[in-house]
Design goal:
Helix content is about 55%, strand content about 5%. With about 475 residues, it is mainly α. It has three domains: about 210 residues, no CATH class; about 160 residues, no CATH class; about 35 residues. Helix 15 packs parallel to helix 18.
Amino acid sequence: MSNDAQQFEEWVVNIGDKHNEPFSNIPTESLQASTDSEENPSIFTACDDGRLIYFRSYYLHPDFGLRKSCRGWQFVAFMRRWFDLDVGSYLEYIQEKEHIALGYYREKGSFYSKEVFREYLLINSCILVFVILLFQNVQDGIEILSGTKEKRRDPKDQRSIEFYILYQYIMEDSMKIKLQMLTMDYQIPWFLVECMYKKHSNLSELVGTPINELAFSCFDDLYPGVHRSKVHGGTGIGTLPPGGFKHLLHIFHWTRTPAGKYQGETRSLLKPTKKMDNFYVPTATDLKLSATVFEKHAGIHVSFHDRRLSGVMEIAPLHIFKYSISIYNELLEFERGYMDCGFPVTAYVACIVYLLHTEGDVRILRANGIIPSMGNDENDVLCSVKELKELICWDDIPMSDDLYDFSKKVRAHHERPSSKYYGEFKSRYCANPWIAISVVAGVCLFFLTFFQSVIQAVFGTLSYLKH
């Protein structure tokens, strides 16, 4: 046996000691300690680390912090005990694919430890699978994790104790954890998560649903919503990205965006001829004056249809929550880092930025359901749009051909005289239904009076000729 192989086996044995310890001394009474009072302290606030993920993964830095907390090893221990995770074989697979996994990271920092990197991938794969099973809506995650799917268990048995310790920790701030799962700096290679789920544990056989499909439904309560083509039965749901998903944020991006739109060609990515700083569309107020109507569309989407006199712009609703700017920031960063996945979020955000300049623009889109009323006034919306504008790297991102065509079609429609005349007519006479009714009644009265005058003139002429 070579020296490297012997060291690897010794390291795997040490790993076994780590994930055997975390749950070894948990008393049954721990389940009752669920408050933060001094008399009954919470078992979760007593833990020393408040984060789900232990260090930034997209950038590897020397201060990993893995050895300071046992919480991560609790997830490993739970997966090993109750889902037959073969830690040794999984670590061997990580070692085999380590050069591929490292390719997912921009830099390793001044210090890099293979053992710590492998431990990181092991721990966070277990955490991610646990949380996906808990948050997904395809099956009952609590039944799967707690073991009640197979048979009803005593709530004080060891598996229930371990599950509810991890469950309450996750659910203590589930929204914060979901946002961490979608943070670019906390991603891990998805092929490792899939391999652990399918080949190194019994999860795939027990659950019966691919982990991709489970992950699709983990963020149904977050906006932007799922794109229309990616919902159940949609045309895009069966078209997975070439080469599979890169990480969980890639899955979230894929479910929210249209397939095959706003892609950049390889040549344009290397030396783009058109950049985002060349993009322009008029404001919502100006477009309304040129007979453009706005329709909402599910998912991140923007398109324009020219119908001779009028134009129709389909655009996804802009839901503004406390987390919205953070999510858009991660999606935009993903598109900057993986340009081969296209720029649909960049196109959508850029369109929103140009459409909304004034409070009147906000009111126009709000009247069409593009900006739902959620307690945000016009000024709040404009402040959020200003933040979105700062997130786009206008000078560095290439503008795709279809986004360029979109901008060109919108401007051509807006500058056409017939569109402006028709838009002015609609805004002046059709904005108020009573005005429209009065106009129609006036036109009808005019024609009736005109026909009456013609008929009287004809009969008068015939009468004169007769006599």
